[in-house]
Amino acid sequence: MTDCCIIGGGIIGLSIARELADRGLSVRVLARDATRDTASWAAAGIFPPAPDFAAASANERLTAYSDRLHRTWAEELRSETGIDNELGQCGGLHLARDDRGTSRLHEAAVAWRAKGTRCEQLTARDVAAQEPALRAAVEQGRIESGLLLPEEMRIRPPRHLEALHQSCRMRGVEITSSANVRAIDVANGTIEGIRIARGEGGTATDTVRADRYCLAAGAWSGHLAESLGLHIETRPIRGQIALLRLPEQVLTRVVNVGLEYLVPRSDGRLLVGSTIEDAGFEKITVPQTIQRLLEFAHALLGPLPDAAIEQSWAGLRPGSVDGLPFLGATQACSNAFVAAGHFRAGLHQSTGTAVMLADLMTGRTPALDPAPFAPGRRPDAASPDSVQAYLARAAEASS
Fold it and tell me: The domain containing residue 277 runs over which residues?
């Protein structure tokens, strides 16, 4: 029997599996989707500055802890697998189109400085000097001001996931693909097994047994958690992205305007994203939405006549009521743990989540207090990081 079974083969599940296997445990991952179909693969890979400061919230501490671990993991993964996930500091340029936007950037600058983060407020002319590709937009009055965060980083999510996948297999992790969980068998306060579909049409089932289980199935975790007597909201929030291929890269930094962004890649590709949509489990792209994203890119960079649309995709972020992930043991089942609901920060918080869950699953005391993330907590729906707050911001931006 396996020591640990992880339900979910995305960034959270694979990261936990890698950490557990590194501690000498046998691990099996049940992956519902192919790696390419996970929310992690679909992510843009933007890592905002993550300072660890005295007044940091629990979520900010988790991000800061994870940010430090990412730097170590990137080196380890490259050494183990030969895959460079391209984690690196590129800087982030946040832009305002009007007076209201400039006021918000000023407020953001005050907040960043209070956390000890370096930032620089820019005039429109400064923006053009920092990124010459934005000069035309500045001259046309489409950019009023900017805020430069030199410590913002980026990572290449598909490469990071492939490196994790290979690293897990090198550590002996068994990864079962196309594993559709049909039922979680619970008796006497413990999980006795996970029934997964197998065979053509998925009519037959196998039962997977382990000493400990961790539910890390992203947006699908809420439904599965009900079998454990646990109510958690992991509401699917769709994000759509377009990928452009350019003859040569025109940007050096991540460019943000509100909730939309441009992410330059070293190979000349340019990510254009993203949306925040309450569309249920409809993981599809909408032509009109992709067109709107392309118009956003053209408004900043001009017509880009030699650019080609390489592909577009959608991902489902697992949102939570208060913006905090659900991490830790469940009260109803003594051998069940949860790691879900990271919303827009799953990629960034994946390393810290992995170490915390591995600590809890092996009886160690985590470096961070897990109490604020307890699966059985009462979430604060008024949190500015909640799904509802982001949906309201998205609606305001599109009005």
Answer: 89-152+235-318
